[in-house]
Amino acid sequence: MQVRTYAEFQANNETPEILFWVGCAGSFDQRAQRVTKAFVEILQHAGINFAILGKEEMCTGDPARRAGNEFLFQMMAYNNIQTMNMYAVKKIVTTCPHCFNTLKNEYPELGGTYDVIHHTTLIQQLINEGKIIMKEGGEFKGKKITYHDSCYLGRANQVYEAPRAVLEVLDADLVEMKRCKTNGLCCGAGGAQMFKEEEPGNTRVNWERSEEALETGATVIASNCPFCLTMLSDGIKKNEKEDDVQVLDIAEMIAKSIDKQ
Amino acid sequence: MQIIQQILFVILASASIFLFWKKMSEIRRNILLGKDFEMSGTSKQRFQNLLLNAFGQKKMFTNPMVAVLHFFVYAGFIIINVEILEIILDGLTGHHRLFFPVLGSLYNFLIGCFEVLAFLVLAACVVFLLRRNITKVKRLNQGELLGGWPRSDANYILTFEIVLMSLFLIMNAADINLQQGNSSHYTQTGSFWISQFIAPMLSGVSESGLIGIERFCWWAHIIGIFVFMNYLPYSKHLHVILAFPNSYYASLAEKGTLSNMKEIQNEVLYMMQPELAPAHTEANAVLKFGARDVQDLSWKNLMDAYSCTECGRCTAACPANQTGKKLSPRQIMMATRDRLEDIGTQLNKDKNWTTDGKALLHDYISVEELRACTTCNACVQECPVSISPLDIIMQLRRNLVMEESNSPQEWNQMFGNIENNMAPWKFSPDDRDGWNH
Fold first, then answer.
1. What is the distance between the alpha carbons of residues A195 and B408, in angstroms, rounded to a whole number?
2. Chain B residues inside the 8 Å CB shell of A72
3. Assigned fold of B286-429
């Protein structure tokens, strides 16, 4: 890949246009790494001058804060803000709606004010500006796709249209689940649930959501969040549908459909 | 005879207004047990929220049928109050239909409108009773609403409204008959839009019988209203008043934003940059993290609890509840109000009361409930009167973790990983850019 870090930019007396905040899932989780790579491909194709923090990036503190551990959250926030302010970061794009929410809504009060956008919104802008063009008759043409609203992009930040607008470009047959947009059902991972067993109940949240997605008859479930990606993939496996139904991040779908000519 | 009625009326009105005022001041005192909080946004934005969500009932319209019915009851409640003004003035002065000479034909139009509204309120309440008890709408028949006081409370209110509206219509019907019989004291206004259809049913009744019916309905109606007013503060129905301030004071930040804990922010800052720490720290200040009891919550959280009408839209949308977990956001609000009322009762007995050894956390809301929340904001999104159950859940979680170190083993590991590896999983920070090579 060879994406340059902020430190490397600075060493050359250069300033990147935007910071790509990779996030812990995007950095370490093998499945989410594929999303990271796909998004980098899009950025590179569009000729965006971007950098990552590399080893200097740390967890935003979102899961700690939502589990109730404010101390740990504040520690992480302090360090990240120090790093980003040192590099005079102005604009951030991230492939994780949890990082997006924390950076955009919770860091300003702590002294870290940046222009933060989610990767689906940036991809929509790049398409609108003609910086990326989809190939004719791409892989998803005519396919039935359903889009899962993540809570932290949807209800938490009211981004409902950009991801859908991006999917429209794929010429696919976009179908909605019964619970979508403001009524969207959680995948079950938010609020640090990703890192613990669910409380006792009669089913799992991700099973419930995956069944709803399968009911639409879609062969692709489009996601915008690394945690939703894991939860929904597990739910599809539970239903033994992993051979028929793919769970993909919007960045992966776009990366596969870009006209590289 | 007339003067006795007037005196009785004055006594009754003053007593009920006094009792209502007394109970409302208790509720105000209870709400103000909560902490002050920083408000974001401008008062203009807040006022817009109030207009849209409280007056306009915007969120009700996700289900248009219910929204329209609820709007009838709400509009009826507000507009028929204009008629109550006349009823009260009649009661005080001993007149009958005091506004008729002033308003003339407009009077008939107005009373006609009130009657139509009264009929719509009545019809809507019947539908609501059916939805609750016969078709058994799920959110109105699950968990904390299965039985007991919450269930009866809802049914009492609906029945009460039906009775009040019926009394109002029968009163006018008797009035029409009395006018036709040229009974003295009964002003000739002509018939009204709805009660004219009830009037024939009373046509055979003697004048004194009609006066009896009219007076009975008049008194029962106004006594009913006084009773209803005093029932409100004990009931979930208090939302008719508190929905307005509650919408006004609702947070204007994006829903994803959790409240910042300034004291911890500073603590971390002084640890990292000791030179910034104030020379004289307030060593005496006992810091308490998160909320253990209602006094640790904000007064908005507490007003939320009194504003909740237990409709259960939050619980119906909650992913944890839908998958059979113990958590129900509605129950969080009801438990908060119960705790607050219990404290209020003890404060009524002893102004200087401080503790009964109980707390909202554990005694009213369990760890299992708190742990099930995915912070998805569905409950906040759904609430028609801008309540945030999530805000309470988060503050209790903070107390659990930071005061009691009470968190599941997996969370402790996650905390450890973040502390040591700067990621919630156990990977070396050196591999963070491994994907890039």
1. 10
2. 415, 418-419
3. Fumarate Reductase Iron-sulfur Protein; Chain B, domain 2 (1.10.1060)
**Mutation target among A74, A103, A113 for the B interface, most CBs of B within 10 A:** A74
What's the fold here for domain A133-257? Rossmann fold (3.40.50)
Q: CA angle, corner B347, sides to B344 and B350, nearest 5?
A: 160
Q: Answer whether A71 sits within 8 Å of B376, measured CB to CB.
A: no
- Computed over every residue of chain B, the mean pLDDT equals 94
Q: Is residue A251 classed as helix, strand or coil in its secondary structure?
A: helix
Q: Which helix (H) or strand (E) holds B204?
A: none
Q: Which of the four CATH numbers 3.40.50, 1.10.760, 1.10.3470, 1.20.950 does domain B2-248 have?
A: 1.20.950
Q: Which residues contact residue B84 at a Cβ distance below 8 angstroms, ignoring those fewer than 6 apart?
A: B222, B225
Q: What is the ipTM, given to two decimal places?
A: 0.96
Say which residues have a Cβ less than 8 Å from residue B249's Cβ, sequence separation at least 6.
B39, B46, B300, B303
Is the pLDDT reported for residue B317 higher than 70? yes
Token pair 């398409």 is found at A127
| Residue of B62, B258, B323 with shortest CB distance to A205 | B323
- Point out which residues pair with A93 in neighbouring strands: A20, A117
Query: How close A142 gets to chain B, by Cα (Å)?
Result: 32
> CA separation (Å) from B2 to A78, B179, B225?
76, 19, 21
Binding-face residues of A in 62-101 toward B, CB within 8 A: 63-72, 74-76, 78, 101
A111-138: per-residue pLDDT in tens? 999 999 999 999 999 999 999 999 988 8
Write the DSSP string, A24-56: HHHHH-HHHHHHHHHHHHHHHHTT--EEB-GGG
Six token digits for residue A254: 């776009």
- CA A102 – CA A122 distance, rounded (Å): 18
- In this structure, how many other beta carbons lie within 10 angstroms of the beta carbon of residue A41? 18
Question: Measured between alpha carbons, how far is B71 from B82 in angstroms, rounded to an integer?
Answer: 17
Domain with CATH 3.40.50.1860 in chain A: 6-124
Q: Do B368 and A195 touch (CB under 8 A)?
A: no
How many residues are recorded in chain A?
Answer: 261
Interacting residues of B350 by C-beta distance below 8 A, sequence separation 6+: none
Domains B2-248 and B286-429 share a fold: no
CATH architecture of A6-124: 3-Layer(aba) Sandwich (3.40)
Confidence of residue B1 (pLDDT cuts 50, 70, 90): low
What is the CB-side half-sphere exposure of residue A234 using CA atoms within 13 A? 15
pLDDT digits (tens, 9 = 90+) for B361-374: 999 999 999 999 99
In chain B, where are the structural domains located?
2-248, 286-429
Cβ contacts of B423 on chain A, cutoff 8 Å: 24, 27-28, 58-59
What stretches of chain A show up as alpha helix (H) in DSSP? 6-11, 23-28, 30-45, 62-67, 70-86, 97-101, 119-128, 161-168, 205-215, 226-238, 250-257
